[in-house]
Amino acid sequence: MSQETRTTGPAGENDNQNQSDARQRIVDFGSAISRNERGNIYTLTIVGQVEGHQVLPETVKSTKYEHVMPLLAALEQDDEVDGVLLLLNTVGGDIEAGLGIAELIAGMRKPTVSLVLGGGHSIGVPLAVAPRVSMIVPSASMTIHPVRMNGTVIAAPQTFNYFERIQERIVSFVAKNSNISEKKFLNLMLKTGEMAADVGSVIYGEEAVNLGLIDRIGGLGDALDCLYDQIAQARREREENLASVR
Length: 246
Known about the structure:
By secondary structure, this protein is α/β, with parallel strands linked by helices. Helices cover 45% and strands 23% of the residues. It contains eight helices and nine strands. The strands form two sheets. Strands 1, 2, 3, 4, 5, 6 and 9 form a seven-stranded mixed sheet that branches. Helix 4 (124-129) links the parallel strand 5 (112-120) and strand 6 (133-136).
């Protein structure tokens, strides 16, 4: 399935339509697709707050899960897309929506790379580690803290048990998709004295790599090179499989 609208007519009209479609895609989804001989890369941004079942005010910059989820499913099936670059600058947001998006990314067979820019806080941490390779710029930060909930909370053992089970899902996912252990990540999550009015930790670029949470330090060029390397490897594997069938 292609994300671009195909039109008939003179070449100039087609080019204008494609440029218009590309601009509209950036406006609607914060995404763009680039094409060259090394591969076609779809760039998707996760910015602001991850919106869940509750609609956020128009004044809040948000990423809507009902947009991102079907888009990821379409990209996985799109023969014209060779890889996906995920740009992250998020304060976090809805836990189940963010974790659902992260699970979709982790389940993709296509080459994927994430790049944390600015911040990858809270539920942004699972989103950052979900791709095959995760990268972070030196100035970026990541906040790791226990599960929190806004609104009315029933003070009952069942409620705290529910929080703990959600927390276990997040810790397990992060440990599975990175090089940090569950114990070390949980210690960062429950650390006291690091944050003035909360429990948790704030870590920065090189520290995130040293802890094993993020794979590499790098910028945009490094992320693209990594993605092109994955695409080239995937092409070689396909050619080898075809040759073995013959």
